[in-house]
Amino acid sequence: MKTRLALFGPPGAGKGTQAYFLSERLGFTHISTGRMLRMAEREDSPLGRMAQAYTASGHLVPDDLMYDLVERALNDCGFDRFVLDGFPRTLAQARWLSAFLAKEGRALHVVIFLDLADEMIIARLSRRRVHKVTGESFHLDARPPVGVDPALIIQRADDRPESVVERLHVYRRSTQAVADYFRERGDLRRVPAAGTFDAVHDRIIRVLYEP
Ligand code: AP5
Description:
This protein is of the alpha/beta class. The protein has eight helices and eight strands; from the N terminus they run βαβαααβαβαβββαβα.
């Protein structure tokens, strides 16, 4: 089975949700750069203060601020059985990751491109709520936070409509090069992200077991 993965795709495609399922059901370490940044912001750490203006407006945080975070997370999980969520998302990050893993004698097994149409992205993000402490993603209709203290359920600052529009622009501008990079290496697999949570999960599992 493929055990070194990255989930890639537009905001709201379901990367965080599917990475969470992989961690809960298959014991993968879920490495979400967006969640690490939101945590740093909540703690008001120097990284959080630097990142805040970028994340709130929907822009990417500079590449060099991301590398330490990812390096530590990969070290902590022993460079295996991990799912990267939201990293890499620039060509520089993709090249950095390949070089970093190569130094450890490893390589990504697969980059799963979760593909979703814009109108579904908007529908998902406008109804998303997240758990303030764990970062788990819910959807008010499709996956309501049943039994969770409502005081812990919040809307992300960057899910405001103007930030969502900007995130989609940023995604289109900076991520084509990332897709091309992994496609040329033969590592990219497109997985349709429409359908139920379990349907998407099953498609991902099939990719993990492909020869
Ligand atoms: P990040 O947190 O990575 O945001 P993103 O990539 O925009 O992705 P999202 O978290 O919005 O969506 P998702 O695909 O995880 O969808 P989810 O599973 O929640 O990054 C945030 C910011 O941090 C960036 O804008 C940037 O500023 C910065 N950043 C992060 N990484 C960076 C990096 N590497 N470099 C530079 N800057 C970086 O699902 C969305 C909703 O849909 C939920 O409500 C969910 O319940 C629902 N849903 C999911 N699947 C389904 C389904 N099958 N059916 C129905 N509903 C579903």
